[in-house]
Design a protein that fits this description.
Elements (H helix, E strand, L loop, with lengths): L1 E7 L5 H14 L5 E6 L7 H13 L7 E11 L2 H13 L4 E6 L7 H4 L3 E4 L7 H19 L7
Parallel strand pairs: 1-2, 1-4, 3-4, 3-5
Helix pairs in contact: 1-5, 3-5
Length: 152
């Protein structure tokens, strides 16, 4: 299995970039990981921005991949349950497990039907902050699966 995380827009803040690099390196000890920045849309109405950004995201999702969309209306999982989900995907030989983080206006309604919706919290975070938070949870999942002491 390979994990791919795709998001709309560049990671601009140095602390975000540093956290992404740190957790990406940790995850790669367990599983191949690819990260993709997708160009964000500017100067259009929110719905049109969502549509165009989701078209760009779709190009990075191969047929047969398991797709998880980070969405505030998605299901909330605790870390052990999320780890079990990741482990199940790994054990059932899913080719690619893809996590997608939308832009400032999220995903189009059509694209939201593309995969499982996952919320990291009931709180709202910037789409920049969600990136390292998600990567940390993926790393935590692997430490749980490997019975390592990171998660207490």
């Amino acid at each position: 299995m390979k994990i791919k995380v795709i998001w709309i827009g560049k990671s601009r803040d140095p602390w975000v970039k540093d956290a992404i690099d740190e957790y990406a390196g940790r995850i790669r000890r367990y599983m191949p990981l690819e990260l993709f920045d997708i160009r964000d849309e500017k100067g259009a109405e929110a719905e049109e921005m969502r549509r165009r950004e989701c078209e760009r995201l779709e190009k990075h999702i191969p047929a047969g991949a398991t797709v998880i969309l980070l969405d505030e209306r998605g299901e909330q999982l605790d870390s052990p349950t999320f780890a079990a989900f990741v482990g199940k995907q790994r054990d059932y030989a899913v080719g690619e497990l893809i996590f997608a983080i939308g832009g400032a206006y999220g995903f189009s309604e059509e694209f939201r039907r593309r995969g499982m919706l996952l919320a990291l919290s009931k709180m709202t975070f910037t789409h920049q902050m969600v990136r390292p938070f998600l990567l940390e949870q993926i790393y935590r999942a692997f430490t749980i699966l490997n019975k390592e002491p990171y998660h207490h």
